[in-house]
Amino acid sequence: MEKHKYYGKTKEEAVNNAKIDLQEVEENLMIIEKEEVKGGLFKSKKVEIEVIEKREVVKFLKDYMITLLKDLGFTANLEVKTKENVPNYIIYSDNDALLIGKNGKNLSAFSIIVNQALKREISVPFKFIIDVSDYKEHHQKQLEILAKKIAREVADTKVEATLDSMNSYERRIVHNALTNNKKVYTESVGEEPNRAVVIKPRD
């Protein structure tokens, strides 16, 4: 992954220099501001930035995952789709069930390894999603259906309901599914890894 350094009297000037040199718009660049560079006796201070093209990060992640899957003994194809400016890496393997694991635990572990590899390369956050044969998309729809079903029961009975413990990704799906519901609201309770969502009736 190539990293470029640019300088300017201000950060804006340094960014502009990067855009001109790389012939890219700013939204396609990851910009990391470094410390100001002290000038000499008759020279003013300069701002240094490090710039990485996002397409380089996307390629790095794809190449890393392909190598990791091979090392783990999987025969797999990897497709990259961009949704709402977020790269989605869809893995199609010869053993999807094993790669996903019970309740998605193996997929979560795989994602953690990939995230750690990226953090070693860049110091700024980069959002991406890893899925196996649309497992997450299917799982999300199931959670949304479950959340809305229980929400209707809570609204009718006026008795709160606590769902099974979920990871932060799953809890966020439930919260988002019911965020505009006028009859119930949600709260997360408990400590990791047993944190769960409670669906409560509104007064």
Structure description:
- It is a single chain.
- This protein is α+β, with helices and mostly antiparallel strands.
- It is built from 6 helices and 9 strands, in the order E-H-E-E-H-E-E-H-H-E-H-E-H-E-E.
- A 3-stranded antiparallel beta sheet has the order 1-3-2. The chain has a 3-stranded mixed beta sheet with strand order 4-5-6, with helices on both faces. It has a 3-stranded antiparallel beta sheet with strand order 7-9-8, with helices on one face.
- Strand 8 and strand 9 form a beta hairpin.
- The mean pLDDT is 91.
Distance between the termini: 54 Å
Task: Say how many strands there are.
Answer: 9
Count of alpha/pi helices: 6
Share of helical residues:
40-55%
What structural class do the secondary elements suggest? alpha+beta
Low-confidence stretches: none
For this entry, give a set of tags:
alpha+beta, 3-stranded mixed sheet, 6 helices, globular
Write the SSE topology:
Blueprint: E1 4-8, H1 11-22, E2 29-37, E3 46-53, H2 54-71, E4 76-83, E5 86-93, H3 96-100, H4 105-121, E6 129-132, H5 135-157, E7 161-162, H6 168-178, E8 184-189, E9 196-201
Parallel strand pairs: 5-6
Antiparallel strand pairs: 1-3, 2-3, 4-5, 7-9, 8-9
In short:
The protein is of the alpha+beta class and 203 residues long.
